[in-house]
Amino acid sequence: MKQYPLLLTLAITLAVATGFTAKTVQQTDKKTIHIKNTTNFTVDQIFISPDNEDHWGDDILDDDELLAPGESIDVEVDCGKWDVKLIAEDKSECKVEDITLCKADQWNIVADCHK
């Protein structure tokens, strides 16, 4: 396996103007988020955890599922504040904290590769 010295980052972007307001988010318990890997490497695992927890939940990718470059998945999530951890094919990881999940329709996984 080729090793990449990289730093993963998660860019949460609004893919489409959704019209969500604070009132709408409070009434909506779940939302489907489109996650797209815009990097040139495979993401092996994606974990989310409530922002007030000290441990990570299950990998949201199936055991045999990888998110290859250009691929995307749709994931149903509970609204609220969450922490996200990504693990790449070279086992490097990135943690992003305090993400309000229902503010975006799409997450783009991007990378800042250091030589």
Explain what the structure shows:
- The chain is mainly beta and 115 residues long.
- It has 1 helix and 7 strands, in the order E-H-E-E-E-E-E-E.
- It has one domain: Immunoglobulin-like (Sandwich).
- The strands form 2 sheets. A 4-stranded mixed beta sheet has the order 1-7-2-4, with no helix packed on it.
- A hairpin with a 4-residue loop joins strand 5 and strand 6.
- The N terminus is likely disordered.
- Keywords: Signal.
Which secondary structure elements does this structure contain, and how are they paired or packed?
Blueprint (H helix, E strand, L loop, with lengths): L5 E8 L8 H6 L2 E8 L5 E8 L21 E7 L2 E8 L4 E8 L5 E8 L2
Which features would summarize this protein structure in a list?
three-stranded antiparallel β-sheet; mainly beta; single chain; Immunoglobulin-like; disordered N terminus; 115 residues; 7 strands; 1 helix; four-stranded mixed β-sheet; globular
